[in-house]
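User: Can you recover a sequence for this backbone? Please restate the input before giving your answer.

Assistant: Of course. Working from this structure:
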């Protein structure tokens, strides 16, 4: 699988401190598309990143983080000024987490199509994935993404698009302008019923929303997640998927959130794994939902859970036995 998107430095205030209290930050690396690649790599699917980072020690540290989990990085362009940064303040109970972006003038924003060896990047690729944060990063990135999408279409490679709208990056009106033509070019859409209404003018709800979105944009698969949040911060989570004419839903799962960032990427990885492997939808949706639930329990953006662990949770729920 090939992913296209920005790689970021993530700086966390020590939980549960607020930014104003913090005298130090923990550094890791992330990227919505790259998080999907890490999960799939852990499950035995070869994955490859298409991105751009500076040719200095921090850029190398970033790539090393993904190489550690078996993700290919040789097609990441090495040039540009800086890594984008994501500052994170963890939530606690009813207090929501906070995120501050520092992504202007990042290396990825300057990426152009002629910097990439497209034949090499797509060699052996069987799936292409991107999120809505990529087209939010300017004309140059959008032009490069369009080349990638066109090549995937020419080679009949399935394309998945995770909406991942971020209000800190652009307005709803700007996103609508660019999301709608992109959705006409992809096979799989990941998002929510709210996304369907906000960006794609789908007013139907429930099962009718899936079918209206499928018919309007000729999609092969649509995957939605739903989340309920209680006043004390506890949450419930589930996934629903339409694959051609078949609808399937997972059970609702109760969550105590350790780190919510990256959970949607874990769900996307689970859906892609099932579609790539030809698994029944009745297996794919519970697996993807369980993967997302477990991602909420792990600090950082990466889902570090094996296929066996996810199946065990999906079948039996939370582990209740301690060490033996």
């Amino acid at each position: 699988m090939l992913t296209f998107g920005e790689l970021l430095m993530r700086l966390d205030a020590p939980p549960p401190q607020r930014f104003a209290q913090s005298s130090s930050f923990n550094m890791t690396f992330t990227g919505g598309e790259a998080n999907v690649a890490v999960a799939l790599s852990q499950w035995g699917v070869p994955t490859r990143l298409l991105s751009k980072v500076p040719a200095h020690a921090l850029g190398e540290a970033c790539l090393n983080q993904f190489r550690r989990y078996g993700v290919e990085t040789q097609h990441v362009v090495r040039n540009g000024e800086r890594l984008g940064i994501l500052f994170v303040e963890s939530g606690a109970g009813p207090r929501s987490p906070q995120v501050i972006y520092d992504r202007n003038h990042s290396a990825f924003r300057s990426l152009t199509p002629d910097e990439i060896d497209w034949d090499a990047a797509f060699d052996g690729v069987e799936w292409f994935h991107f999120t809505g944060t990529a087209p939010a990063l300017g004309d140059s990135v959008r032009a490069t993404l369009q080349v990638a999408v066109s090549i995937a279409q020419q080679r009949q490679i399935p394309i998945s698009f995770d909406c991942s709208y971020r209000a800190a990056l652009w307005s709803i009106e700007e996103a609508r302008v660019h999301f709608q033509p992109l959705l006409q070019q992809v096979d799989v859409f990941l998002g929510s019923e709210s996304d369907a209404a906000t960006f794609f003018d789908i007013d139907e709800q429930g099962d009718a929303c899936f079918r209206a979105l499928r018919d309007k944009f000729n999609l092969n698969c649509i995957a939605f997640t739903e989340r309920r949040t209680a006043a004390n911060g506890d949450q419930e989570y589930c996934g629903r998927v339409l694959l051609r004419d078949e609808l399937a839903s997972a059970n609702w799962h109760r969550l105590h959130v350790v780190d919510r960032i990256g959970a949607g990427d874990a769900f996307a990885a689970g859906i892609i794994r099932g579609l790539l492997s030809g698994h029944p939808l009745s297996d794919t949706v519970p697996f993807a939902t369980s993967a997302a639930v477990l991602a909420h329990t792990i600090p950082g953006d990466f889902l570090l859970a094996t296929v066996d662990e996810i199946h065990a949770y999906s079948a039996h729920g939370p582990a209740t036995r301690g060490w033996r």
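That completes the design. The longest strand covers residues 221-229.
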